[in-house]
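User: Can you model how flavin mononucleotide sits in this protein?
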Amino acid sequence: MIRVLGLSGSPRPDGNTARLLKRCLEGAACRGAAIKTVDLTGLDIAACRHCDGCFEDGRCIIEDDMQELYEEMKQADSIVLATPLQFMAVTAHVKLFMDRCQALWARKHILGLAPLGDENSRRGIFISTGGRKGARIFDGARLSVKALFASLDIQYFGELLYPGIDAEGDIDRHPTALTEAFDMGIRLLD
Ligand SMILES: Cc1cc2nc3c(=O)[nH]c(=O)nc-3n(C[C@H](O)[C@H](O)[C@H](O)COP(=O)(O)O)c2cc1C
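Assistant: Here's the modeled complex, given as structure tokens:
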């Protein structure tokens, strides 16, 4: 059974990115994937302390909800990360999560281990919306997400990025976004 893990980084539980994430996972489920969504905004994830404790054994010393999330990520075959733009970047919740992936980065770059514990080829999708218009508004966040996926040996499989989407539910009025999200979820299982 293919497992797809969705990570939602918006403070709005039924906001634009959450809706896109839901449709994307529904597409994957339609192909038989086991799907799970984790709301990053509801977790207790402390900021990385840069103590380099993870350089010893690849394990983060901070005991909080991130410990369970590391396990969820290891079990997943694909990860779909959804975040709105906030000040042209990922949300604070997503950034906390990303920085704590330093322990997985250390597994790979310091200890020479597979970041997620095995050599499985995982796929990643990046979902975002922003209120401003212009295709380039996602450049900064895209760089961050690409760096994260690369560190975790996750292939950057695709992206769903929609500028000019601001009010909650704006995404429902976009002519193609939710269909594209569903289709991307379907293709994830190809
Ligand atoms: C604190 C904050 C900062 C924001 N900064 C940006 C920004 O820099 N660029 C942008 O295009 N939209 C920005 N927005 C708008 C959101 O990205 C936009 O409303 C998005 O569609 C919200 O998605 P959501 O419903 O999934 O939360 C910001 C919104 C908030 C609340």
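A couple of observations from the model: The chain has one domain: 8-41+74-187. The two ends are 14 Å apart (CA to CA).
User: Helpful, thanks.
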